[in-house]
Amino acid sequence: MADTSIPVRTCVGCRRRAPVTELLRVVVRDGGLTPDSRRRLPGRGASLHPTAECLHAAVRRRAFPRALRCSTSLETGPLEAHLAQQVS
């Protein structure tokens, strides 16, 4: 039987479900997408696998504005820098 104490979310990039421990929470701060590794920042969040492939898929599908209920375009620079740092 699966452990039901860990919440499950859907990645906005690949649309696969995964435990929150495997996903990166992303919020809007100052008009840009900001990673929330500790899952503590206020506001609506979107979950994303911490991979460049899922990020590009989410941007291509315009999933972030929909998931975060934001009508303006969002800057992905801080999120891309965070993911690049994770890989290094």
UniProtKB/TrEMBL annotation:
Tell me where in this chain the YlxR domain is found: 9-73
Q: Note the Gene3D superfamilies from the entry.
A: YlxR-like
Q: Which InterPro entries match?
A: YlxR, YlxR-like_sf, YlxR_dom
Alphabetical list of Pfam families matching this protein: YlxR
Q: Which PANTHER family has this protein been placed in? A: BLL0784 PROTEIN (PTHR34215), YLXR DOMAIN-CONTAINING PROTEIN (PTHR34215:SF1)
Protein's recorded name = YlxR domain-containing protein
Its lineage reads: Bacteria, Bacillati, Actinomycetota, Actinomycetes, Geodermatophilales
